[in-house]
């Protein structure tokens, strides 16, 4: 193997290494973004559920109050 061939092989190996490092960084960033989006969606769903439960409880109390007033 000549000096020129070794240099080319070295450059090629470095390019492969750099491409893999870049790929890993992009993949990690993507996974973190997806995880963040899922977490935000879950928090929104929990908040909606909490709001729905509170509204249902308030309606239940209003209905009980109306029923009480009708009996009087």
Automatic annotation (TrEMBL):
<feature type="region of interest" description="Disordered">
    <location>
        <begin position="53"/>
        <end position="72"/>
    </location>
</feature>
<protein>
    <submittedName>
        <fullName>Uncharacterized protein</fullName>
    </submittedName>
</protein>
<feature type="compositionally biased region" description="Basic and acidic residues">
    <location>
        <begin position="53"/>
        <end position="66"/>
    </location>
</feature>
């Amino acid at each position: 193997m000549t000096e020129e061939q070794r240099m080319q092989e070295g450059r090629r190996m470095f390019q492969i290494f750099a491409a893999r490092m870049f790929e890993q960084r992009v993949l990690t960033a993507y996974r973190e973004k997806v995880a963040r989006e899922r977490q935000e969606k879950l928090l929104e769903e929990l908040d909606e559920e909490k709001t729905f439960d509170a509204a249902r409880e308030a309606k239940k109390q209003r209905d009980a109050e109306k029923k009480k007033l009708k009996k009087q």
